[in-house]
Amino acid sequence: MADSSLAIAILAAGKGTRMRSALPKVLHRLSGLTLVENVLASTALVQPTRKLAIVGYEADQVKAALSNVLDIEFVAQTEQLGTGHAVQQVIPALEGFTGDLLVLNGDVPLLMPETVEKMLKTHRENGNAATILTAQMDDPTGYGRVFCDQHAIVKEIIEHRDCNAAQRENNRTNAGIYCFNWAALMTILPHLKADNDQNEYYLTDVIKDLSPVMAMDVSPTEVAGINNRKQLCEAEAVMQQRIKAELMLSGVTLINADSITIDSTVTIEADVTIEPQTNLRGRSVIKAGCRIGPSSLVEDSTIGANTTLVHSVVTDSEVAANGRIGPFAHIRGHALVGENCRIGNFVEVKKSVIGNNTNAAHLSYLGDAELGERVNVGAGTITVNYDGKNKHKTVIGDRTKTGANSSLVAPITIGSDVTIGAGSVLTRDVEADCLVFARSPQKSIPGWKPKYLRDEQKS
């Protein structure tokens, strides 16, 4: 019985000179994930038993970016001498392995999990020594051509420069994605030579010595490589189209979908409406019945059911159900906003806990604060949390009301059922169930004029 184990090897060692970036090419981001993470995501349906990333340029950065991937192994390619050379580097790591090896490119992020699943199934059902993905391109100029018989068995692969005029009429191209029977590959791979103008070891050179090798056609879009920022932008458009199509079919309404961006890592429940110019990022979760936007940003945050969020920014935070957020609110820094809360016009909440049914309707800053339930924050209330060196906490009890233009100088605790008079600057704790105010007595000076007017009168 054939070994059903599967190893994947992801080629992720290149610099990506045409990206014109200090960042390794495979770490550029596409819809919330790095390119190499998108490639890993394409293997979700085949459940590989071994995952190997072949790293080279800025290897430590690549390793750090993939540190959260369970059981991933890293193989060093200290010199980039071609695809064949890259795969040769996994030979020691796969000693004793007898299954199949799937070779993926770290800069081909649009490959669908269903395609990978079908490729592996085709490979195993036909007992292939190798199965390769191919694409029928309208303009195959510059690509190696794959020549097959009527049963999709590969006869040869010829580089574009070596094709004659008739051979160039063939528009089936090699996508550079392979599935090998490891035992069969090991009869050839260790002996691969760099007999070409580039002095590189090409993985395509093993194909002529393996049998049978089968081609499987896929959409050119799926196997498009990313070599520059323009191609990255084009791939983003494809990915966004996929993400939004899936969401709309699952019960999410997108208004002017082309103006919206949504990362592949975002979760959105049914009966959510996303309005124009809204951007949803990271590991955000949007619960059922929400209206998000227009012109809002939610990043790595959870928005509770039936919340409305308009013209606002929420990052690294959580808003519970039935909230009313915005317009022009900013919630950040691991803030927790309770149920039925109103965080309104030009209110910033930073690293604070806001109790249920609390309102901060306008023009306030709540930083490093803990507010109880049914607190009413008057316009212009400021928690004065920073002394120039350290941040300090403000605690406000249930049902307390802050007057307009109040400043609460932390560290400070305000009890429950307190009413704070408008314009107060509080520097000491306040006990529960009282009225508190701190303002200078009002004075009027009859006949007063500024000095420049007095000087003008004298002259």
Automatic annotation (TrEMBL):
SUPFAM superfamilies named in the record: Nucleotide-diphospho-sugar transferases (SSF53448), Trimeric LpxA-like enzymes (SSF51161)
Entry's Gene Ontology cellular component terms: carboxysome; cytoplasm; membrane
A single MF term (Gene Ontology): glucosamine-1-phosphate N-acetyltransferase activity
Catalytic residues, chain numbering: H362 (proton acceptor)
Linker: annotated span: 230-250
The entry's keywords: Acyltransferase, Cell shape, Cell wall biogenesis/degradation, Cytoplasm, Magnesium, Metal-binding, Multifunctional enzyme, Nucleotidyltransferase, Peptidoglycan synthesis, Repeat, Transferase
GO biological process, one term: cell morphogenesis
EC number: 2.7.7.23, 2.3.1.157
Region Pyrophosphorylase: start-end pairs: 1-229
Residues the entry annotates as binding acetyl-CoA: A379, N385, Y386, A422, R439
Compartment(s) of residence: Cytoplasm
Residue ranges annotated for the MobA-like NTP transferase domain, each copy included: 9-143
Pathway, per record: Bacterial outer membrane biogenesis; LPS lipid A biosynthesis; Nucleotide-sugar biosynthesis; UDP-N-acetyl-alpha-D-glucosamine biosynthesis; N-acetyl-alpha-D-glucosamine 1-phosphate from alpha-D-glucosamine 6-phosphate (route II): step 2/2; Nucleotide-sugar biosynthesis; UDP-N-acetyl-alpha-D-glucosamine biosynthesis; UDP-N-acetyl-alpha-D-glucosamine from N-acetyl-alpha-D-glucosamine 1-phosphate: step 1/1
Needed co-factor(s): Mg(2+)
Protein role: Catalyzes the last two sequential reactions in the de novo biosynthetic pathway for UDP-N-acetylglucosamine (UDP-GlcNAc). The C-terminal domain catalyzes the transfer of acetyl group from acetyl coenzyme A to glucosamine-1-phosphate (GlcN-1-P) to produce N-acetylglucosamine-1-phosphate (GlcNAc-1-P), which is converted into UDP-GlcNAc by the transfer of uridine 5-monophosphate (from uridine 5-triphosphate), a reaction catalyzed by the N-terminal domain.
Family note: In the N-terminal section; belongs to the N-acetylglucosamine-1-phosphate uridyltransferase family. In the C-terminal section; belongs to the transferase hexapeptide repeat family.
Protein name according to UniProt: Bifunctional protein GlmU
Protein source organism: Phormidesmis priestleyi
Name of the gene encoding the protein in the UniProt record: glmU
